[in-house]
Predict the structure.
Amino acid sequence: MRTSNFHISILKETPADAEIISHQLMVRAGLITRLSSGLYTWMPLGLRVLRKVEQIVREEMNHAGAMELLMPTVQPAELWEESGRWADFGPQLLKMTDRHERRFCFGPTHEEVITDIARRELKSYKQLPVNFYQIQTKFRDEIRPRFGVMRAREFIMKDAYSFHASEDSLKETFWVMHKAYSAIFTRLGLNFRAVEADSGAIGGTGSIEFHVLADSGEDALACSTKSDYAANIEKAEAICLDQRREPRSEMQLIDTPDTRTIQALVERFQLPIEKTIKTLIVKASDEIDADYIALLVRGDHELNEVKAENLQEVAAPLTFASEEEIRRVIGASPGSLGPVNLPIPCIADRSVAVLSDFGAGANIEAKHYFNINWDRDVPLPPTADLRKVKAGDPSP
């Protein structure tokens, strides 16, 4: 086709809302054009590229033994209520009502629909295993769409669903898909890594994500320099090799006016930040007899919210208590919280459990305890991996 008969719209200037290089180049090259927030039109040139990518995906999925189908984008509420995700999926689920007052949603994923198909179409275990896939438009009402088509509200997804008569059969298909995905990324000429990941709202007991390595993007990866271990930052396990030392000093109650943050405490009293504790109050789940639960992380560490939400004691979605709620339950402001005489259950990060002679809020307004020691001054609470990994941490 001649370019004179082919519409190509090229921009000289970079759009103000294009944050990363891939978004900038796709818009400037005329591959896509923005309709509204998180909504993009694939222009003729971009659609040709998209169809070539789809064909590579289709060829590798077919080669792996999967069968293509196409499910409706609009799904009845009954299926989502049956799975429990009508409420659990949250505001990302675009809900609608038809003229007969029947409730539907625009599918962000298709587990409910494919499961309904399987229970109606598969009559015997002899038909298993079976692997269905589709290349379909999805919609998730993202609170902040960004990065062009990378984090759009409407997007095209290849999703596959397999059914099995045994765990061994499931694992076999899992690794067949792993091989197929590796082939797809290799054929596309991309530098990628397959990493451990959290399953999120989709659920499941194990998840591997394929990431294209780039300087910009929406996810961060933790990669070992000593092995081939790699994981999404949300999933990467934080290893603690330290051992708890014997107490050296007696616990002291110190007045700490105008000290509402760990940084202020460290600067004013010359404390090592790794000898301090942050106490974060979140809503508790129905698994425990409490409305709130405290999560303890070291002062120089950051709470991994995905790990926290996955704890059975923590309500999902993860919800932090407001200052008003904290004052009502604890009797002190957020800057004065700690494990000593804490009136609610708590869980400590592994790195917190090995501290000795550390500082934390006293649960009394504008007061802190210094030289706290586990078991001597306060019982050691249950422990879990709560923090984000950081550069220099030991790898699993």
About this structure: The chain is about 25% helix and 25% strand. The mean pLDDT is 92. Residues 167-187 form the longest helix (21 residues).
